[in-house]
Amino acid sequence: MGAITLTAPACAEGVPAATAEEEAAKLAKQLSNPVADLISVPFQGNWDSGGGPDGKGSKYWVNIQPVVPIHLNDDWNLISRTILPFITQSHITPGPATGQTGFGDTTQSFFLSPTKGGLIWGVGPVILVPTSTSPGLGGAKWSIGPTGVALKQSGPWTIGVLANQMWSFAGNARQADVDALYVQPFLTYTTRHFTTVILNSETTCNWKLQGNQCAVPINLDVAQLMKIGGQRVQFGAGGRYYVSRPEGTAEWGIRAFATFLFPTGKK
User: Fold this and answer.
1) What's the whole-number mean pLDDT along residues 162-189?
2) What angle do CA 16, 17, 19 make, to 5 degrees?
3) I need a labelling partner for 91 at 20 to 30 A (CA). Which of 11, 25, 65, 228 fits?
4) Domains in the chain, start-ordered, CATH in brackets?
């Protein structure tokens, strides 16, 4: 394995430095676009503290999030985004079992997105697949709904929002029905050294809850695009604070992630 370097000079023998820098700048900008024509495999580690019935719970989970664009024609792409969490939690769920470890439910989204135009957008279905390996790690319900994303990129800035709404339609009848909203407004700034500052909120609302139905975290992350041998990787870390939350959910958390990039070569 080669040394870890910032992506700057030449990416291969005979390739001008300017070309390598332009490629790195394009990749850094694409990483701020959820429907970019770029294959990426993020591994996102999260830790939340302060949840559970007694407020002493903790939850650690790793989201495996492959993003695969499918080139339909010169005008349209279909973007597949998958989120599969592996979870370890303690004192989160009531009952005699104080902790659970295993896979959670899988969220599968598809975005039909145009390849041209100033405003970048995508719409499609989102499906929640009950893949959890323990009752405390998922809802045992199949759910479906619409999802969409819209964003604008100008120079080093990206601003946009991603959202979905899901309702359950099948699954374990003894488990609570799903009626859930997810909204992620985001703002990013990427420097000429391919460092990206990310400000967002990953708001989740469970409309079945009584009282406060929404968890509203403010996330601040910093990420750096690097090159390990011939592999482009973005590493990042940050933290979050929940400005609003339902009773029994986390107060704050931290995050670290690594995103492996596989450019498609398409414009």
Assistant:
1) 95
2) 70
3) 65
4) 4-262 (2.40.160.40)
